[in-house]
Design the sequence.
């Protein structure tokens, strides 16, 4: 006989409970703690918060009217009195327009990702959990969108629908649904293969309950990380569409559009013409670094 | 192997069908009456008639699609509203210019990325790793159309070293292998290569780092192989993943070139697409989108098949 | 209504708790140019078994012989292509029988991989309370029951209830898995290699606990394992599987004391003996099991059987009662045509 052992286990039942076991933290508490200890993420978050708050609170910052044109003071250089960042090709205050521009630029970048996250995430999780024909149908449709390079798809769609912020939002949402859907599908398929999902099915729970309790908690993290990594792409792409004249219409302040209208000024005041791009660059870098930080924080191994 | 390639090719058919449906739908995405949407108000009567005939707008949608598909499959992409020339001709000449730029940008981005990424993965000092990581971060974060403007400002406006726009001197429309043409290419190539450079450097670095942590590398060291021999093994193992990402980047680069071509007035598909959008030249928009999408699909297929050939672990029979 | 109370016996002790007839599961393998199915893995082929109330049925066989598929079929985690099941007189998933939901309340399962079978995002008590709550028990009650169960499997609820799976050792996690299987007060528990991944000392502790729990809750076990010693220790009857089929089934003494099928004999002789007087006399099995995609005709073991004859390739040997056990071998079937047949 191979089994020769005293009755119950001694390590767990008989031994006294270990003294002062470190408090158990839930996964999200751990992620939060790690994020709070990551200086890069904190700095980037701070910068982004500053940009957002400034953009939202712009009317109360005592800035010049971002729409007020003046033929007399066009293209003032950076550092002019009263115009710390100069004036644009129509004599509007650059500082004011850059700060106000954050509103549309961020909105145009973040909204499509959120919409795509909701739609693509739902589709992907459905495809991953249902498998079979449902999966096939959803993923084949996504493959069609995948057959286009994303920039081409965005430009062709908004080009066909015509310029305008709504069309750009729609086009960008369509561009980001397939990648989010694909990631959601693969993560969900992976989670569905784990025994704990089978165990949950074996307990007789309904599909919706299983998805809610056992699947969502395990797939939302990776999907969210992926979605945040798309925000910087979306901001650049949205600015790019406006730069082509396909997005926001003049005279709205928006970084991509400002880059476009200032292009004629590169021979007169090159530094000024590059300014809106700096804003896009900073925002995009911050989003990328935050996404990296989030990814690292969520990669909690055991 | 051949079976796998063939199966992928067959699988492409439904996707291609979907793509054609989407491209066809582009005309109908336009607000209002499709014919008024695609024809400028001052268009001559014969152009309007020709378009009506081409699209068959009076027929039900499925019939319109069927007709359009048949005509398109026969190689007739319609006629440009702006120039009156066949779309196939317009797109064809622009496509060549785009490809030249794309190849140059790919070569630059990928070779640099392999060197930088490998160096960072091997780097003993944190400085090198940090530097390379920062370069790749800038690559994926920088708005490349803005970088294009900055390059023009620095090298054309301020230094006067390189031409700011065009494919060659004196209204050239095609590319030739001579110094003036190469000069015109330098700035667009750099601007176009930043995104793939950033993405690829990241990929190469993380892939090689992961492989270096595997036990077989330790085993090779224990066998007494020198670093150069080991590097060969490491690169061989990193190749499939990197190839896959490269393929995707090469395809996206062609999409991304639309913005760069616009900045540099490079007469490629992107430039054509952009001007078509503003002239509401929908036949050109459709034709360009269709050609680029098919090129992207074939490219992906090729990369997939090559990857299967390179990676002995994938057996897709 | 309280659907989470123990189910009382219905058919009396003689009626089998679970009867499965002609279970079959073939997994298609996509192949060919258009991804059409050209091949199937015959994971389980026309398998019938019965489990008596209160017994432990051991299931042994090499890896890949379909043991786990049988477990998942009995739980209906995968749908059988063919076959019927009767649980204590009630047909399963049929018009006049019990629903799958009801089946899953009376039959529960413990998986091999203790880590993959616990949701890493839930605390232990949340995992345990999930099934009772899904069956309508109020939250507080489900939690209280979960804490009781933790104590039953030898884990102090005060210490373990609010921990996450990664904070537990393998043995502790497997105890949690066992507790989860008991949460719905099942009658039959399928243990699919439930102790195989554990260290030997921990394995012994868990096995002993399983014996205790069986008595306390009046359980019936189907114990799947590739470890012949463990199966012998725990089982009343043993079923030997080879490539998706039963080759021999019978009381544990009969199977271990007087194995009839060449495969069973080879399996048993392959385990090392601590007793120098009991040397292995049987020839060990040669090679790997054949591919279940295209199993040999007739008797599936014939390609590795030292006694194979023509008849073995022509006809499939059916399970035949030899007195103490049932064997599927032409050598034990009267008039089968095999030279060694009685």
Sequence:
């Amino acid at each position: 006989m191979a089994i020769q052992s005293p009755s119950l286990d001694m390590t767990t039942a008989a031994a006294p409970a270990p003294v002062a076991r470190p408090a158990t933290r839930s996964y999200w508490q751990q992620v939060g703690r790690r994020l709070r200890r990551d200086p890069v993420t904190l700095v980037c978050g701070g910068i982004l918060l500053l940009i957002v708050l400034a953009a939202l609170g712009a009317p109360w910052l005592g800035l010049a009217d971002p729409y007020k044109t003046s033929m007399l003071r066009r293209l003032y250089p950076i550092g002019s009195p009263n115009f710390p960042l100069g004036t644009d090709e129509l004599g509007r205050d650059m500082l004011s327009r850059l700060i106000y521009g954050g509103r549309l630029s961020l909105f145009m970048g973040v909204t499509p990702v959120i919409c795509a996250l909701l739609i693509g995430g739902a589709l992907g999780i459905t495809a991953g959990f249902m498998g079979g024909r449902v999966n096939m149908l959803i993923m084949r449709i996504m493959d069609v969108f995948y057959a286009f390079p994303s920039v081409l798809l965005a430009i062709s769609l908004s080009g066909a629908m015509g310029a305008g912020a709504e069309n750009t939002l729609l086009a960008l949402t369509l561009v980001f649904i397939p990648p989010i859907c694909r990631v959601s599908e693969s993560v969900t398929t992976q989670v569905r293969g784990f025994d704990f999902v089978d165990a949950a099915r074996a307990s007789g729970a309904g599909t919706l309950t299983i998805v809610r309790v056992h699947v969502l908690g395990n797939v939302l993290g990776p999907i969210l990380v992926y979605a945040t990594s798309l925000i910087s792409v979306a901001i650049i792409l949205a600015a790019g569409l406006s730069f082509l004249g396909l997005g926001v219409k003049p005279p709205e302040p928006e970084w991509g559009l400002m880059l476009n209208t200032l292009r004629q000024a590169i021979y007169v005041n090159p530094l000024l013409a590059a300014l809106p791009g700096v804003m896009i660059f900073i925002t995009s870098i911050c989003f990328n670094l935050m996404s990296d930080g989030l990814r690292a924080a969520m990669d909690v191994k055991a | 192997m051949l079976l796998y390639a063939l199966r992928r090719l067959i699988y492409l058919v439904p996707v291609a069908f979907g793509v054609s449906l989407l491209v066809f739908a582009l005309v109908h995405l336009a607000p209002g009456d499709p014919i008024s949407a695609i024809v400028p108000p001052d268009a001559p009567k014969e152009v309007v008639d020709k378009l009506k005939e081409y699209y068959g707008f009076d027929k039900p949608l499925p019939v319109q699609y069927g007709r359009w598909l048949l005509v398109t499959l026969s190689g007739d992409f319609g006629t440009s509203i702006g120039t009156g020339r066949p779309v196939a001709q317009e797109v064809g000449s622009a496509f060549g210019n785009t490809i030249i730029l794309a190849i140059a940008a790919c070569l630059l981005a990928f070779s640099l990325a392999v060197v930088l990424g490998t160096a960072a993965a091997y780097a003993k000092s944190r400085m090198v790793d940090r530097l390379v990581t920062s370069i790749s971060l800038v690559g994926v974060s920088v708005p490349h159309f803005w970088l294009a403007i900055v390059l023009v400002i620095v090298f054309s406006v301020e230094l006067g070293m390189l031409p700011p726009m065009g494919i060659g001197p004196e209204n050239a429309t095609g590319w030739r292998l001579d110094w003036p043409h190469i000069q015109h290419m330098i700035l667009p190539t750099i601007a176009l290569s930043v995104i793939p450079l950033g993405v690829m450097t990241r990929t190469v670095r993380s892939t090689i780092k992961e492989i270096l942590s595997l036990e077989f590398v330790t085993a090779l060291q224990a066998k007494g192989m020198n670093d150069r021999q080991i590097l060969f093994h490491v690169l061989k193992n990193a190749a499939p993943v990197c190839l896959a990402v490269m393929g995707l980047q090469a395809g996206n680069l062609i999409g991304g070139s639309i913005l760069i071509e616009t900045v540099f007035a490079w007469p490629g598909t992107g430039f054509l697409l952009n001007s078509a959008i503003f002239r509401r030249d929908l036949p050109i928009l459709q034709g360009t989108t269709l050609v680029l999408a098919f090129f992207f699909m074939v490219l992906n297929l090729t990369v997939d098949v090559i990857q299967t050939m390179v990676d002995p672990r994938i057996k897709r029979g | 209504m309280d659907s989470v109370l123990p189910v009382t016996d219905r058919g009396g002790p003689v009626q089998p708790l679970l009867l499965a007839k002609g279970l079959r599961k073939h997994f298609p393998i996509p192949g060919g140019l258009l991804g059409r199915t050209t091949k199937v893995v015959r994971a389980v082929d026309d398998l019938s078994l019965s489990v008596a109330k209160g017994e432990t049925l051991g299931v042994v066989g090499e890896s890949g012989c379909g043991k786990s598929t049988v477990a998942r079929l009995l739980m209906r985690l995968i749908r059988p292509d063919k076959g019927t099941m009767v649980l204590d007189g009630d047909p399963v998933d049929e018009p006049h029988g019990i629903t799958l939901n009801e089946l899953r309340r009376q039959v529960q399962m413990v998986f091999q991989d203790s880590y993959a079978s616990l949701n890493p995002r839930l605390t232990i008590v949340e995992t345990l309370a999930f099934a009772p709550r899904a069956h309508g028990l109020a939250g507080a009650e489900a939690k209280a029951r979960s804490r009781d169960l933790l104590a039953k499997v030898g884990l102090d609820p005060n210490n373990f209830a609010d921990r996450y799976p990664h904070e537990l050792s393998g043995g502790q996690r497997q105890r949690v898995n066992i507790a989860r299987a008991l949460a719905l007060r099942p009658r039959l528990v399928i243990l699919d290699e439930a102790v195989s991944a554990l260290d030997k000392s921990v394995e012994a502790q868990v096995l002993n606990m399983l014996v205790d729990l069986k008595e306390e809750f009046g359980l019936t076990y189907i114990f799947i394992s590739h470890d012949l010693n463990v199966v012998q220790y725990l089982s009343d009857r043993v079923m030997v599987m080879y490539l998706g089929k039963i080759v021999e089934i019978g009381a544990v003494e009969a199977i271990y004391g007087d194995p009839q099928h060449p495969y069973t004999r080879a399996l048993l002789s392959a385990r090392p003996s601590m007793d120098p007087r009991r040397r292995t006399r049987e020839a060990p099995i040669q090679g790997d099991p054949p591919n279940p995609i295209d199993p040999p005709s007739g008797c599936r073991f014939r390609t590795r059987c030292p006694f194979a004859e023509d008849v073995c390739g022509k006809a499939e040997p059916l399970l035949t009662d030899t007195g103490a056990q049932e064997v599927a071998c032409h050598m034990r079937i009267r008039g089968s045509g095999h030279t060694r047949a009685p």
User: Anything to note?
Assistant: Chain C has a mean pLDDT of 87. The interface with chain B takes residues 31, 33-35 of chain C (CB under 8 Å). Residues 3 and 135 of chain C are 7 Å apart (CA to CA). Residues 2-235 of chain C form a domain with the Rossmann fold fold (CATH 3.40.50.300).
